[in-house]
Amino acid sequence: MRSFVIGGAGFIGSHLVERLVERGPVTVFDNLTVGKREFLGSLLTEADRTPDNPQSHGTLARVRLVVADALDFPTLQEAMRGHDIVFHLAANPEARWGLERSRLDLEQGTLATYNALEAARLAGVQRFVLASSGTVYGNTPEPCAEQDLGNLPISLYGASKLAGEALVSAYVECFGLRACILRFGNVVGPRGTHGAILDFCNKLHAHPEYLDVLGDGRQSKPYVYVTDCTKGLLYVVDHAPEALAVYNLAPPDSTSVRRLAELCVASSPFPNARIEFGSTPQGWPGDVPTSRLIAQKLAALGFTLAHSSDEAVAKAVKDIAHQVFVSGVS
Ligand SMILES: NC(=O)c1ccc[n+]([C@@H]2O[C@H](COP(=O)([O-])OP(=O)(O)OC[C@H]3O[C@@H](n4cnc5c(N)ncnc54)[C@H](O)[C@@H]3O)[C@@H](O)[C@H]2O)c1
Asked: How far is CA 83 from the centre of its chain?
């Protein structure tokens, strides 16, 4: 299987690439705005690990890295030729950035997804995978299954994910593509590039006396350990029978932001830091305070996540605390 991974040098993407190389050659297409060459580690040759090689093509062992932007359509289309499957994981990394730059999710989400689909169509790639998110369910306190799209998204990030899903559906119907859409919970683990755990550890690193938390700490989300995420994603790719396969990928439980903050403080070199919570139920406008996903469809297909949300968080806090406080990587 010749895989093409847009956003493959990022957090989830680099873990996915580690699994994909077991199946055949992989091309990573990433603008490295968030992703890093180091995340691909020994999978790349020396030449591709050298930062002064901005247009790095070729000279790769099993992973070829193309440093370019998904909004550069000609480059994307050219690079995609000769592959069997496209994994599209590039996106605006922080939902709340949309508050400051309201075009960000339109460009990095919706337009980049359109480009990925259109490039796949023109390059004759038959299979497509979209990394989507539970934010498509909007502010719905009850657990959501795949068909529960009653409430519309409340963030520009969620809106761009839903728009991307709609485009995938249309490409499946109009152009005969086979596609998988995975709606992830909050994914956590080593090499995390964003999210509450990294935020908290970075804040504590910067000022060890206190940790200020956005929102009242009662926000609660399902957390997915990154290896469960990549295994589950590939399980759907391998086993889903539908031409358009839409699956939630999250454990059934959820973990509160208060719990995250307490664990981060306890795992930091500053266990006496005081935690200061905000007063609002949301962390920021567009934040879904309480979210739960039902992944029974995935279970019925035969895949069960190895970690609960609490277990994923406990493990990821250790990973990220080590990353920030020991390795000094923020
Ligand atoms: N991490 C989570 O909790 C989570 C939850 C739900 C959905 N998702 C989705 O999963 C995907 C991967 O998330 P992640 O956490 O690994 O994020 P990430 O930011 O670590 O990875 C995204 C990668 O895409 C690259 N990228 C961004 N815009 C690009 C562009 N225009 N052209 C080329 N490359 C570009 C970045 O450099 C980065 O390497 C995203 O689509 C995200 O929305 C993530």
From this structure: 22
- Which CATH number does the domain housing residue 147 bear? 3.40.50.720
Query: Do 154 and 130 sit in the same domain of this protein?
Result: yes
Structural domain range at position 304: 196-220+253-326
Tens place of pLDDT per residue across the chain (330 aa)? 999 999 999 999 999 999 999 999 999 999 999 999 999 988 886 556 555 555 554 444 489 999 999 999 999 999 999 999 999 999 998 889 999 999 999 999 999 999 999 999 999 999 999 999 999 999 998 999 999 998 999 999 999 999 999 999 999 999 999 999 999 999 999 999 999 999 999 999 999 999 999 999 999 999 999 999 999 999 999 999 999 999 999 999 999 999 999 999 999 999 999 999 999 999 999 999 999 999 999 999 999 999 999 999 999 999 999 999 999 888
- Give the nearest ligand 1 atom to 35 CA: 39
The pocket around ligand 1, CB under 6 angstroms, is made up of 6-7, 9-13, 30-35, 69-71, 89-91, 93, 108, 112, 131, 133, 184, 186-187, 193, 195
Q: Examine the domain organization and report whether 242 and 316 are in the same domain.
A: no
Residue from 33, 76, 249, 257 to probe ligand 1 pocket by mutation (most atoms less than 8 Å from CB): 33
- CATH number of the domain residue 318 falls in: 3.90.25.10
Residues 6+ apart with CB under 8 A from 264: 197, 200, 201, 204, 211, 317, 320, 321
How many domains, in total, are found in the chain? Answer: 2
Secondary structure of residue 285 in the 3-state scheme:
coil
